[in-house]
């Protein structure tokens, strides 16, 4: 059975060559080709993120008995099969076999089995051209299985969207072309798409609706509401359409259709003890496509641990590090597949709008998470998506998730963490964000009955109105200067003595300002990576969002600082008699939020 195809760089998906192959000598390849021309003594090495084979995981989780590489080439070549794994000193390469094959100017298909005493790490190969001209057309890793080892799989792709028409249309077109309308694809007839349009702006003709692509206009109840609506709609068709698995995927990603194919094959070949596995996709950066943001994660009571963050996937050592498994508690819903039977009338996600719904569902249901190189999406980095409203949900949802799952998140730890985040926003003069943090906690203390009575869409609109609005920099009453922005990003950290003074003066808020907004060089600080040094004794700051090229202004206010410190003191006192009581309430009654009865009312179905 074809496990994974050899992939080549493509415009519109990814053009980072070393994520696909490493060249040696003279070869001719351009992005518009689906083949590589090789000259005498040139080599291509496939020990890469997309074209290495995660042998250890294929043998651990699936029923395959042997792996081979199948090649379609023209010319005479020598192939070297090898196994690579990471060690403390770098990487270890074990050469398995070498063979000459093919004839000059003759096109053919050839198969070579990997024979190895160990399956640890990655299987990969290199080809050397031995003729004056050769062509590598394509290839694939093949897994030896019996017919009885292959299970029927049909995936329901669940996409929640809110005004992301460009991404949604592009991904559906790619899936139509490569899978759903491609008679050569083994997956044809094994994928259906369910779209929840939370904004109601996606037109039917833009997604080519048919009996395999379903779209509903959904109430804007955030990602949680959109994904849940997709789950509900897919579950209705589970029996009549023979759906076996659901794949939740963000609307603002770039997907390589081969990732879905690899997911399909893994699910088709799972061993019995892993039939309930989740398949996760890594998140890679959209701006730097070779950088990995996360590959599985731990919730850790809200002190989130993103596994293998920041890896440069152009390096073979990074790809080999990815092969190591670590304790995971969830995979984010930018790409996560699991059995559709997990979804029941009493086991739906929490209605927490955004931030934490995927975490909680993973904590509740995930037993095994399978992650493989080559299964991924490209997503805009979160630091490029600034939104004040997130501050309301950050702490509220953290408290809900921890309460339902009995995380033993103690009151003193909660107060410390909240105080730290509120203080950071005060130091950045972002008083509205500090208010939203505290408001979210107050609404948690309102209890589960209050929560169940809320209209998620109306609540979110109220939250949005209380935050900062990113504006065109030309509309701001303070001039924007890009050199000032660069300068703020590079401003050195204060010395030890300076840090002490700043701590005693609340980062200079208790001191007179020494830089006014009418100075020649305005103060411009980044929204996500702002530091206290950018705000020390500054009166007014332009907070600049690099991705959107928009911003908002914040100004130092001792009055606002004292108001928020007093508000923080009140919430700390309130927590002494409210915290344990509310935690217990969510722990005991949290399942009421997971039922189809609740969701039917919540979504106005």
Q: What would you say this structure looks like, in words?
A:
By secondary structure, the protein is of the alpha+beta class. It folds into three domains: 145 residues, Jelly Rolls; 230 residues, Spore Coat Polysaccharide Biosynthesis Protein SpsA, Chain A (Alpha-Beta Complex), CATH 3.90.550; 169 residues, no CATH class. The protein contains 16 helices and 26 strands. The strands form five sheets. Strands 12, 13, 14, 15, 16, 17, 18, 21 and 22 form a nine-stranded mixed beta sheet that branches. Strands 1, 3, 4, 6, 9 and 11 form a six-stranded antiparallel beta sheet that branches. It has a five-stranded antiparallel beta sheet with strand order 2-5-10-7-8. Strand 19 and strand 20 form a beta hairpin. Helix 8 packs parallel to helix 15, helix 9 packs antiparallel against helix 10 and helix 10 packs parallel to helix 15. It starts with a strand and ends with a helix. The mean pLDDT is 94.
């Amino acid at each position: 059975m074809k496990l994974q195809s050899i992939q080549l760089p493509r415009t519109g998906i990814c053009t980072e060559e070393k994520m696909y192959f490493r060249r040696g000598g003279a070869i001719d390849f351009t992005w518009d080709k689906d083949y590589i021309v090789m000259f005498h003594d040139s080599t291509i090495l496939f020990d890469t993120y997309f074209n290495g084979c995660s042998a250890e995981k294929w043998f651990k989780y699936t029923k395959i008995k042997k792996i081979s590489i199948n090649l379609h080439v023209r010319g005479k070549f020598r192939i070297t099969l090898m196994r690579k794994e990471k060690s403390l000193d770098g990487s270890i390469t074990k050469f398995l076999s070498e063979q000459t094959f093919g004839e000059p100017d003759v096109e053919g298909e050839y198969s070579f089995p990997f024979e190895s005493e160990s399956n640890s790490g990655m299987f990969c190969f290199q080809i050397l051209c031995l003729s004056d001209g050769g062509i590598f057309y394509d290839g694939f890793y093949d897994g030896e299985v019996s017919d009885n080892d292959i299970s029927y799989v049909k995936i329901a792709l669940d996409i929640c969207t809110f005004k992301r028409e460009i991404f949604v249309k592009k991904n559906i077109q790619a899936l139509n072309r490569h899978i759903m309308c491609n008679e050569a694809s083994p997956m044809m007839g094994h994928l259906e798409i369910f779209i929840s349009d939370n904004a109601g702006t996606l037109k039917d003709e833009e997604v080519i609706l048919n009996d395999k692509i379903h779209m509903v206009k959904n109430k804007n109840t955030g990602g949680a509401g959109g994904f849940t609506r997709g789950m509900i709609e897919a579950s209705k068709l589970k029996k009549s359409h023979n759906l076996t698995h659901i794949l939740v995927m963000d609307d603002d990603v770039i997907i390589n259709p081969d990732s879905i194919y690899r997911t399909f094959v893994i699910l088709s070949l799972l061993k019995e003890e892993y039939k309930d596995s989740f398949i996760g996709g890594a998140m890679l950066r959209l701006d730097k496509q070779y950088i990995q943001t996360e590959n599985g994660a731990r919730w850790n009571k809200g002190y989130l641990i993103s596994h293998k963050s920041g890896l440069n996937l152009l390096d073979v050592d990074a790809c080999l590090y990815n092969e190591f498994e670590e304790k995971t508690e969830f995979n984010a819903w930018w790409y996560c597949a699991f059995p559709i039977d997990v979804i029941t009338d009493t086991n739906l996600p929490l209605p927490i709008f955004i931030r934490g719904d995927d975490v909680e569902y993973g904590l509740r249901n995930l037993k095994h998470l399978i992650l493989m190189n080559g299964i991924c999406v490209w997503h805009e980095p979160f630091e490029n998506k600034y939104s004040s409203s997130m501050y309301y949900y950050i702490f509220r949802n953290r408290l809900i998730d921890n309460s339902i799952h009995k995380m033993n998140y103690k009151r003193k730890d909660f107060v410390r963490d909240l105080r730290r985040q509120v203080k950071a926003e005060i130091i950045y003069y972002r008083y509205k964000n500090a208010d939203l943090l505290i408001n979210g906690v107050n609404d948690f203390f309102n209890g589960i009955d209050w929560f169940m009575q809320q209209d998620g869409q109306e609540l979110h609109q109220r939250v949005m109105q209380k935050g900062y609005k990113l504006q065109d920099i030309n509309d701001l009453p303070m001039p924007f200067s890009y050199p000032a922005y660069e300068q703020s990003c590079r401003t050195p950290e204060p010395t030890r003595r300076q840090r002490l003074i700043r701590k005693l003066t609340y980062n200079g808020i208790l001191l007179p300002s020494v830089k006014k907004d009418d100075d020649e060089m305005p103060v411009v600080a980044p929204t996500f990576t702002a530091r206290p040094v950018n705000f020390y004794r500054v009166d007014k700051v332009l907070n600049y969002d690099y991705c959107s090229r928009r911003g908002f202004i914040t100004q130092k206010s001792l009055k606002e600082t004292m108001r928020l410190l007093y508000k923080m003191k009140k919430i700390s006192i309130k927590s002494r008699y409210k915290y344990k009581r509310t935690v217990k309430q969510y722990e005991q009654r949290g399942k009421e939020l997971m039922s189809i009865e609740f969701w039917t009312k919540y979504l106005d179905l």
